[in-house]
Amino acid sequence: MSAATAKAIDWSEQGLIPDPLIRAGIRRLLRERLRELAPGNIEKQLEMEMAFVQEMDRSPVALVPEKANEQHYEVPATFFDLVLGTRRKYSCGWWPNDAATLDDAEVAALAATCERAGIQDGMDILELGCGWGSLTLWMAEHYPNARITAVSNSGSQREYIEQQARDKGYSNINVITADMNDFAIDAQFDRVVSVEMFEHMRNYRELYQRVYHWLKPGGRFFKHIFTHNGAPYPFEDNGDDDWMTRFFFSGGIMPSDGLPLYFQDHLKLVQRWRWDGTHYEKTSNAWLANMDARKDAVWPILADVYGSENAQQWWNSTMVRSGWSATTCLNGR
Q: What residue spans define the domains of the chain?
């Protein structure tokens, strides 16, 4: 990492660089990364993609799930109440023309997910990586006779979802806390769904095989992931400028658009959809706007978790992370 880049990161963590300049710096780093991944030689790019697939096959299902849990959920649930939308959807919203707010985009995304997954009332449904339960609770509300099993690696998420279910009178939800490396269940389902969990997974082939055995005959698996339209790549901590990996996305990957197609031993693709990257850009910008608007409430949470002396750094790092997500999605649309 150059001295200039190191200084820029330090200044951004101190809040000394305005947002437009931070985004310009992010775009520059993205261009550098893309030059590494797509060197202008289609033969070389395919070789890199095949090598990535082979490395995935040699990997555990998830590399460091305990770090992912710490990085995303060490702040309390109240932080996410302040930053996310009403349904606490910790993933991409969908912004059709009539979606004016983050809450609208959450509802549109949840409805589209259920429609495309073919969810019907009375089904047995398994959700992998349920987050704060936005989809689980949506399904419980709109499909009251469905039986929903939700899996998260976070105990605080399980407690939150269970409390929400009690408050709303839902009796058709079972939440399990489990590491996906070890998760097993002696049951079969009409649908297995997963929204933005597989970016944290490495061995798709092994996990797809498990999903196959969790499906009833005729059952289907629906997966939503963010992707890049070029080559896949891992988030690796190779230096001080890899702070996104170190603090927010350890063990994660950026899948390429076609990456899931390499793993059709047990599951066969029957349909695909795409959302333009600007949907995630708008979602991330809405989270940023909520942080800014509710700074007086968010700041004490960061001070309590990281210490008052580090609150400024974590405030700015969290803002930069959301800005990074918005800029990345816009760049990669």
A: 3-331
CATH fold label, 3-331: Rossmann fold (3.40.50)
What is the DSSP-derived secondary structure letter of residue 189? E
CA-based nearest residue to 199, from 91, 328, 89: 91
Structure tokens at 269: 């693709």
Spatial neighbors of 142 by CB under 8 A, at least 6 apart, are: 114
**Residue 32 above 50 pLDDT?**
yes
Under a CB-based contact definition with an 8 Å cutoff, are residues 191 and 222 in contact?
yes
What is the residue whose two structure tokens read 């992707």? 227
Q: List the one residue out of 160, 174, 25 whose CA is nearest residue 84.
A: 160
According to DSSP, residue 119 is labeled: -
- pLDDT tens per residue across span 69-105: 665 556 788 999 999 999 999 999 999 988 899 999 9
**Separation of alpha carbons 103 and 212, rounded Å:** 34
Please state the pTM of the whole predicted model.
Answer: 0.88
Of 186, 209, 179, the residue nearest 126 (C-alpha): 186
Please tell me whether residue 68 adopts helix, strand or coil conformation.
Answer: helix
**Whole-number Å distance between alpha carbons of 232 and 49:** 7
Q: What is the mean pLDDT of residues 66-71?
A: 63
Closest CA to 151 of 76, 256, 65, 235: 65
b/e burial code for range 189-218 (CB count within 10 A of at least 16 → b): bbbbbbbbbbbbbbbbbbbbebbeebbeee
> What's the rounded mean pLDDT across residues 60-73?
72
User: Is 323 in contact with 22 (CB distance < 8 Å)?
Assistant: yes
Residues whose CB falls within 8 Å of the CB of residue 203, separated by 6 or more in sequence, listed in order: 56, 57, 59, 60, 61
Residue 193 sits at the vertex; the CA angle it makes with 283 and 277, to the nearest 5 degrees, is: 30
C-alpha closest to that of 327 among 25, 13, 103: 25
- The dihedral region occupied by 269, where left means phi > 0, alpha psi between -120 and 50, and beta the remainder, is beta
